[in-house]
Design a protein that fits this description.
Number of helices: 6
Order of helices and strands: HHEHEEHHHEE
Radius of gyration: 16 Å
Largest sheet: 5 strands, mixed
Low-confidence stretches: 1-10, 12-48
Mean pLDDT: 79
Strand order of the largest sheet: 1-5-4-3-2
Structural class: alpha/beta
Helix content: 25-40%
Length: 185
């Protein structure tokens, strides 16, 4: 797959507008965090190792997993692209007539880490809710002209999109007691 400069520009523009138009997660019923799926590990010590954001933006991750991306990284993906994507997404979320329930931001010297934290109670309290949020974002990404033009709409996920842009890790948290970390290979 060759990603042209026009496709790269479309990636940022379409996804900033498209993902921001996705509906916000509805508040869920009170739930207890559920155990991780078969590909996750509950090795807190490993998850905390080298994660200076744990304990500040979110609690130390309870679970982690590795996603092996189908998409290759774009050779020209850079810090500016990743920050621009998340900044545009956040701007669109804040322009909505209602509060989105979560925030998304980047961290790391090269903005290689995406962090998603619930700012309302009961939004992302289980691993399954975290994965559902990613599935919703996958649906929007698959509907984008970029994925259709590349012919990958049926195969790539939101995590593949993040790989294309050079993200290496995603942490999703309820902002109180639970966090899940995904390493993108």
């Amino acid at each position: 797959m060759i990603v042209t400069p026009a496709a790269r520009a479309a990636l940022v523009a379409v996804l900033i507008l498209g993902l921001a138009a996705a509906p916000a997660a509805a508040p869920a019923q009170a739930q207890q965090p559920l155990p991780a799926g078969p590909h996750a590990t509950a090795d807190k010590a490993k998850a905390e190792e080298g994660d200076r954001h744990a304990g500040y933006y979110y609690p130390p991750p309870d679970t982690s997993e590795t996603y092996v991306a189908r998409a290759p990284g774009m050779p020209n993906a850079n810090r500016t692209m990743r920050i621009g994507f998340v900044t545009g997404f956040t701007r669109e979320l804040n322009d909505r007539p209602y509060r989105p329930g979560y925030v998304m931001f980047v961290k790391g010297g090269e903005a290689e880490k995406l962090i998603v934290v619930a700012i309302e109670d009961r939004i992302i309290v289980t691993l399954y809710q975290a994965r559902a949020l990613l599935a919703e974002m996958t649906g929007v990404a698959r509907a984008s002209p970029l994925f259709r033009d590349l012919g990958v709409a049926a195969d790539y996920t939101f995590l593949d999109l993040l790989k294309m842009m050079g993200f290496e890790k995603v942490t999703i948290s309820d902002g109180a007691t639970y966090a899940h970390e995904i390493h993108i290979d």
